[in-house]
Amino acid sequence: MTVGIVVAMDKEVAPFLKGKNAKEIKYGLYTVFNFTLAGKDVYLIRQQTVGEICSAGATQILITKFNVDVVLNFGVVGALTHEISLLSTMAVSSVVHYAMDTTSFDGHEMGKYSCFDDVAIPCDEKLLEIVHEVQPDMPIVRCASADKFVDSAEEKQYLNKQFGAEICDMESAGIVITCALNNVPCLLIKSVSDSLMGGGKQYSETVLVAVEQYVSVVEKVLERL
Question: Is the full-model pTM beyond 0.85?
Answer without folding.
Answer: yes
